[in-house]
Every structure is written in C-alpha cells, then in structure tokens.
Design brief:
102 residues, alpha+beta, two-stranded antiparallel ribbon, elongated
C-alpha cells in the first residue's frame, strides 16, 4: 500500500478515530485503506493521513511554532516548553492543540 492511500477518520476538529479508544489524537488513531468499507462513527469522515499531517504543519507554521530534536535523549520539543515527546507527531499535535477548533 502506498502512503498516499492511507486514510484516517477525522471529526474535522482535530480528533481522529481509534477502533479501541474512540476519538483520540492522530498518533493514537487507526489507519485504513481505500479498499476497506467501515461504518464511519458519527461525525467522522475519511481523510488522507498525509493531508492531515500537512494541515497540522500549516497550523504550526502559521502560529510560528519551532521544533527541536535532542540527539542525547532522542526526543522532540516545541519552543521552550520544556516537555519532551517521543515522536515528532506527538510534539506537533500538542503544539497546535489550542488552534484546532478554529
């Protein structure tokens, strides 16, 4: 499967669907293929995984977020918040969370 064929289910307000956890963050959501025929949860729509990440990157750019990676710890941070994240995606999600409802 090509990465461009990977889909997630979004509610349009920054939450994504996990069959286990319900509405959650993108990093904790399930991914689907174009060939799957699932019943969508109420308020959910299929969106491309790459499109979702690209939207988040645009919000981060528009809100002037800066990210850094620590080679020593192998973790990510945004601005000088102090909190470190295991993955860039988790760091990105936390940095733009206040702007997702706009």
């Amino acid at each position: 499967m090509r990465i461009s064929d990977v889909l997630v289910i979004s509610n349009g307000c920054g939450l994504f669907w996990s069959n286990t956890d319900g509405w959650t963050s993108l990093s904790d959501s399930d991914v689907f293929s174009k060939d799957e025929n699932n019943n969508l949860p109420v308020g959910g729509n299929y969106v491309g995984l790459l499109d979702s990440i690209e939207r988040m990157m645009r919000i981060a750019k528009d809100t002037k977020k800066e990210f850094s990676y620590s080679k020593c710890s192998g973790k990510w941070a945004w601005e000088s918040e102090g909190e470190m994240y295991q993955s860039f995606l988790e760091c990105l999600e936390d940095s733009i969370e206040p702007y997702l409802d706009e």
